[in-house]
Amino acid sequence: MPTDFLISLVGAGMVGLLAGYLLVTVSGALHGLPFSEFTLSLALPNLLYPLAEHWLHVSGVVAVVCAGLTVGKLLHARRPAAHQALFRQMWQHLAGIASAAVFLLAALHVPVMLRDLRPADLLTLGMVTVAAIASRFATLSVCLPILTKLGACKPVPRSHRLLLAWGGVRGPVTLTLALCVARNQALPPDARHFAAVVSIGFVMLNLLCNGLTLGPLMRRLGIVPAATPPTG
């Protein structure tokens, strides 16, 4: 029902806002280094998601996202720059470890998932890749200028928009969802095969094609200077 979806969405947003505010307030009362806030922020999603999803019957994902946005906004306003920088570095380090772990686990399942690759899957994969790149270009060419005119973000040069559209590589989240779908025995075998092949193939194409051509594209667009040959 549309009404139930709206209630779940709005309720989750309110729960996330409240949880983020409480985290920043409690961590500020501790008068400690960012390590205390980092520990609390690491525990918050694991506590908030089941609370919202199973007890309050609202979207756990939306609640966690809203809580993260609230924490980031309040920390930026209430904490000194050095405090924010250390907090950000710890989360970036953890994000790198999590991404590496996801890719390692996915790599172990790639041969099994792709052993039944069919010719029709290659056509589907090509269509998905083209559609994804086209949607990136459309979003950055249409939505970003509108947001700039509204004052929601700073102007982005056209060359940078092209680079973002081509290099918008997404891997860990896609692979995680693919693994969940592929191992869900309640789904039909064809659905699990489709999700696994398309998602893993899409990520591999992004990493090998888009990722490896980012350097030459940056030089072609003039974002970084071309390498000059050494003079002897």
Number of E strands: 0
- Write down the overall geometry: globular
The number of distinct helices, counting runs of at least 4 residues, comes to: 9
Proportion in helices: over 70%
**What gap, in angstroms, lies between the N and C termini?**
73 Å
- As a whole number of angstroms, the C-alpha radius of gyration is 22 Å
Counting helices, strands and paired strands, the structural category is: mainly alpha
Strand content: under 5%
N-to-C series of helices and strands:
HHHHHHHHH
Architecture overview:
By secondary structure, the chain is an all-alpha fold. The protein has 2 domains: 2-79, no CATH class; 110-220, no CATH class. It is 80% helix and 0% strand. It has 9 helices and no strands. The protein has helices spanning 2-30, 34-55, 60-78, 81-114, 119-149, 158-166, 172-182, 189-211, 214-220. α1 (2-30) runs parallel beside α3. The chain is globular, with a radius of gyration of 22 Å. The relative contact order is 0.08.
Helices and strands in order, then pairings?
Blueprint: H1 2-30, H2 34-55, H3 60-78, H4 81-114, H5 119-149, H6 158-166, H7 172-182, H8 189-211, H9 214-220
Helix pairs in contact: 1-2, 1-3, 2-3, 2-4, 4-7, 4-8, 5-6, 5-8, 7-8
